[in-house]
Amino acid sequence: MHIHIFWDSLAPDGLQVPVARSISAILGVPATVTENPVRMMGYVNERRQVDAQVLLDSLSAYKYRHDIHEPVLLVVSQDLFRKGSSSVFGLARESVGAAVVSSARLANEFYGKSGDDADIIDRLIKEGTHEVGHLLGLGHCEDRECIMFRPGGLDELDGKKKILCDLCYTKLKAKLATTLDISR
Ligand SMILES: [Zn+2]
Ligand SMILES: [Zn+2]
User: Fold this and answer.
1) What is the pLDDT of residues 22-49, one digit of tens each?
2) Which residue in 100, 84, 92 sits closest to 138, CA to CA?
């Protein structure tokens, strides 16, 4: 098992290594970062946002063409939405092992505050790990400090810790053990 992180060229540069390292450490699964090879689809002019579902279609097609069976997390800078929701931090499609996360609403600048790379790194780690957690078979968690808690906004995202609670960690270990069995 191995996590692929596709980093879009417009996503904040220089944060790739700390983000990938932490995602890997929290989940206990190796992760590598490469420049995003997937075409950015789904931009909607009127909303100035990207439809996360369309982007996941594109990512999923790429995975299929290139025979990638492992989870892929795409990191982009464009603001994302999904049908029925004005915006999303990220979105995972478990059935194809593809997820996307956006840095747009993770930056202080978006809220009129001064920027801080450490904040973006912290939030990208939490959001990215959360979405990959879904791809590895984890659902949402009630524990507000757990990575798998679904945050209602930036404050709740900031309130999470960069860890899985004991329950989610145990579940993940069991899921990973099953995955290894299948591939053997
Ligand atoms: Zn979630
Ligand atoms: Zn949990």
Assistant:
1) 999 999 999 999 999 999 999 999 999 9
2) 92
| 38 CA distance to ligand 1 middle (Å) | 23
Task: Report the Cα 80 to chain-centroid distance in Å.
Answer: 12
Query: Do β-strands 98-102 and 80-82 pair in parallel, antiparallel, or remain unpaired?
Result: unpaired
Instruction: Give me the catalytic one of 131, 142, 145, 156.
Output: 131
Is pLDDT above 80 for 109? Answer: yes
Tell me how far the alpha carbon of residue 141 lies from the centroid of ligand 1, in angstroms: 9
Q: 83: closest CA among 115, 122, 117, 56?
A: 56
Compute the distance from residue 49 Cα to the ligand 2 centre, in Å: 30
Class of the CATH-defined domain 3-183: alpha beta
Give yes or no: 131 in active site: yes
φ, ψ of residue 62 to 5 degrees: the values are -60, -45
- Whole-angstrom CA distances from 106 to 41, 53, 88 are 21, 20, 11
